[in-house]
Design a protein that fits this description.
- By secondary structure, the chain is α/β, with parallel strands linked by helices.
- It has 8 helices and 15 strands.
- Strand 9 and strand 10 form a beta hairpin.
Length: 258
Amino acid sequence: MHLPDERITALIVEDEPLARERLQRLLEPEPDVVVVRACDEGIDAARAIAELRPDLVFLDIQIPGIDGFEVIARVGPERMPVTVFVTALDQHAVRAFEVQALDFLLKPYDAARFAAALGRAREVIRTRRLAGFQARLQALLETVRAPREYPTRFMVRSGGQYLFVPAAEIEWIESADNYVSLHAGRRAYLLRDTLGGMEEKLDPARFVRIRASAIVNFDFVTAMRPWSGTEYELVLRDGTRLVSSRRYRDRVRAFFTR
């Protein structure tokens, strides 16, 4: 580890050119941080970490080749530098970071959030608390790799009876005041829940939040078109057209790079 008056060496792992350049720009004004390399895929990142042994890594999770978690597994949690995760992942993974007290930047993030994450990483490096950090990385790997079960159906009230709607048949979900509306086939069913609550219950390999008010089952998406530069129009099997928001752009992109 570096002495307090020495520079912190940093490695950036990010496959999107604009996102990678933004991280570099945010680090440029920091006099005690020097970027030693920027990687755009997982295998190169694991090799660079092992060879360069940087003090700090900004690690995107959804990267080509092997993902960020596999990068950690290949390097070994006990040999990983301080890591700030950069992610557009689902809330299950975000909760895993929070439980282990590991810092993350959830896309899109602003300069203030970046500065806070860098400040915490700098503190861990300067105070040499790396062993505790690496133990939390190990626990994170065990958490994210543990098999997780998701509900296969949801019970909704329809008239004087309760119906079961299979999760696999839900095409998309939208918020409706204190309820959510489950669109399945030609029907829509109201369920008392929040969209955030539904997002945590649904399998992220199938369901993706595309804007603050909608979640889509990508099994039913037949086409995706650019829309207004930073957004996408999604076309479902029945012809329904939904537009993602700029805020969730990276989550939509991440789904197609898995």
